[in-house]
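Quick illustration, no need to memorize.
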Amino acid sequence: MNHRALTISLLLVITACRTKPKSALHLDAAGTSLGASEIAIGDPVYQPVLLRGFYESEGGWRWTARKFAVAIVPPPGKDATSLLLEFDLPVEVTRTIPAVVLTARINGAEIGHKRYDKEGRHEFSSAVPDVLLTAGKPAEIEFELDKAARDYGKNRELGVIAMRVMLTHAPTARFDREEETERARQGYRYLLAKRNLLVPAEKQHEMMKLFHEIPVWQHMFFLNVPIEKNPLDLWMMQQIIYETRPDFIVETGTWRGGSALYWAHTLNGAGLEQSRVLTVDIQDLTNLAAKHPLWKKYVTFFLGSSTDPQIVSKIAELTKGKNVLVTLDSDHTMGHVLNELHAYAPMVTSGSYLVVEDTHMDGVPTAPEFGPGPLAAVRKFLEDGVSQPFTQDFTREAYIMTFNPGGWLLRR
């Protein structure tokens, strides 16, 4: 995936954010169909899932017509699901209509109705029969008022002022990891759409170049050990580790050991005390990091080339049958990265990631004189048959600046 292709893909996301779908089935899979269980009606990011009956955003809310509909993905989990609509019945309606009845339908089936005769803030809620919902699939939720006021100035119906609509599970004392993880992923999809709606691709590239050239990443420490990473990428990696719960994190390019120590710290904090970090480099500069108790417990260092068949074979044997996350951050020339991709891709387990770092070097590019490099290797890798189980997960680029654009590869 080259710089031009990346820019085009980002512009497609922006265009999709501004396009109103005809139905729930029209929502595309490129990241702008947010897969959200909760929608802030006034936020332009959610425009693609407002199916009909909404007028222009007024900041935190929108006027509706008599009928209005949204597309929402049910939250994961098997607990009972409820529908909630937060809205305001304004004086513009109540001064001409003494009362309205609001009816809710999901995929065409009525689930409840309620009468309202007082202006002000209201919440409509109703239980949702499980038979009306399909996990992971958007449901069409339609609301209908039996009466509507008239805005003669703009020649349109006036229904209610809608603020928020959501599908949610009733609060429970138990902790549902799947549900909490999906909530985080919805947040990333929202951030990605919001970013692409507000910040043109060229501006994002300028910010990334500035961040790289300052250079923040050359003056970072983790537990006083040097670590040359984008801190926003580190934050995303801890979320991936929490979600995927790897038995092994395989890292190529150890340098001073700061990142391996960070992986160890994250594993420890997530309670993954049996998990381990395997890290490879052609030189051993880990003297300081290796003194830390977390290193001694979690990290195994391999001295040599990350593409040395003997080292690859040892790591493959250690990780066989285990849940594996791989991150590549050694020699950034295209040929070397491509060899690493072919060597380590088979170790990555379904649902986990193969992270190709520093694709910004020849992608944005932050190093115009360098290349072909990591992004060129990713593009080549995704073109061949070996890469078929992998897809680029752009939601992992939600924090505006990443050194790995197009390099977060999810194994399906």
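The CA atoms of residues 306 and 312 lie 7 Å apart.
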